[in-house]
Amino acid sequence: MRIFTLLIFFTAFHSISQNLITKDSLNARQIVDSLFVDRDLNNWSVRLYSNIKAQRFKLSSDEAHLNFTPNNPYGIGVGVATSKLILDIGYNLKSKKEEETDRFDLQAGFFLKKNVINFFVQVYEGFNMKNSIDNRNIFRNDIKSIGAGIDYLYLTKRKGFSTNLLRSGLKDPKQSNFSFGLGGFLLFNQVSADKSIVPSEYHPYFNEQSRLIDFTNYGFGLMGGILSVFSLPSNFYLALSSKAGAGIAFQNKQTENLNSSTNTSGIYNINASALLGYKWKRFYINFSVNGTNYWTNIGSGNRAAFAVSRAKVAIGYRIRKN
Asked: What is the end-to-end Cα distance of the chain in Å, rounded?
């Protein structure tokens, strides 16, 4: 059922980005080629990387809040990058601790002319819980979080402004510039647990409606952003971007006493990213950070926030030199 929901989720967003390509006279293979495949090896690179990825969420009342963060956020991997798509495959590094977060984590982006799309799919099980009452840490291996999101921007300028393209190591900006973008976002996230995500010792600080064992959130909205690129001396370059959006969220909740309810609320998001890169002949190295935060009111004086963050260092080599 969850996989079916995710498929519906991503299919729905297809209508937002249908201006990517005229499909009337194209078959499925041609559409995929146009969107994802670059057959010119001059636009390909291979890369090694190390990264930090994390999915976090927060539950707040008027008196206190609980922060849920995963363990073992570090990873290493290999990947390929083209002028249209970056595909990195990584391995999550785990310590010998018993309290580890099990995770599936996919984040990617692609770009075509004026269109920039980023998406993620994440499944995390096992979270550290830190509270604002006594600052005690508790590891909850029964808490599972599923998140999937996609955002789309249509840029006002034709090319040269995608942070994703600079991250691929294929773009060497010759001058500084910026572009505005307009688009939208979709979000699906679900948090479930065997028992209330609010431990019994903290019940005095949270009302009964916040003692959730299942929370499902579907959100969508409009967003806008600005992307800027700065050409620096000695083959260095810098890219900065920020995006913000607002929309509507539909929520289903079930508390520990098995009471179910639905709620509709506003949902808001903000994203910021930065990339510092260096290019030398066919080699490149870049460091990037990216963070997206969503927050919404879940009713009865309770609020929820959901965040996805990433930091990555990549070293790459272009297969061919133009």
From this structure: 47
Encoded tokens for 180: 């505005």
| Cα gap 69→143, rounded to integer Å | 11
CATH number for the domain formed by residue range(s) 54-72+95-278+286-313: 2.40.128
Q: What is the pLDDT along the chain (322 residues), one digit of tens a residue?
A: 444 444 444 444 444 344 444 444 455 555 555 555 666 667 788 899 999 988 899 999 999 999 999 998 899 999 888 777 777 787 888 877 668 899 888 877 777 778 888 889 999 999 999 999 988 899 999 999 999 999 999 988 755 455 666 777 777 677 788 889 999 999 999 999 999 999 999 999 999 999 999 999 999 999 999 988 888 988 899 989 999 999 999 999 999 988 899 999 999 999 999 999 998 888 999 999 999 999 999 988 899 999 999 999 999 998 876 6
The residue ranges of every structural domain in the chain are 54-72+95-278+286-313
What is the Cα–Cα distance from 53 to 105, expressed in whole angstroms?
8
The Cα 37–Cα 266 span in angstroms is: 37
CA–CA separation, 99 and 125 (whole Å): 11
Q: How many CA atoms lie within 13 A of 12 on its CB side?
A: 19
Q: What are the angstrom distances between the C-alpha of 151 and each of 100, 119, 221, 243? A: 30, 6, 10, 10
